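Extended Data, panel c. Modelled sequence:
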Amino acid sequence: MLEKLIREFGDLHHELMLELGNITAKLKKREYSKEELCDIGFLCRELERSFDDWRKDCKARRELAEKVLAYSVMMESLDGEADDVVRGKLARAVCDVKKEAIIPKRGTDEFYSLMEHFGVTGEATEVLKFDWKRMAEFVTKLAEEGKEVPKGIDRTIPKYKATFTRLKNSKE
């Protein structure tokens, strides 16, 4: 099923690129009427929107697949049965779990405690904000080193991740 989907997507992509190439050539030669240019511009805008929606849909499925995969691998590794690398026909995935900090809401006592931990006080607490990704990396590093998380972070949640890499022998 996946191979068929990849093949069909490749064919569709090829056809679209050929058609866009034809349109580009005619645009450069100024072969379209104003009305046709209007429709081409509109069509391209609509395609952009559709592609963006498709990208978001694909990203959501990829993120779900990596969470499910990484969770499964991590659960198996607790029993000592699994490696953190999974190989499919097209790609390999390296699975990991990190701790994601739940950053307190601005204005709460926990928020100010966290700001104070990093040496931020006074008016600066009202304009600075935390970067979620960097905070997750920081909290994960602390956990790996066996250190306590900063005051103000009351809880963390596991974030299951997988990094996908195309296999060299994959033709898709």
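The chain has a mean pLDDT of 90. This feature is highlighted in the accompanying rendering.
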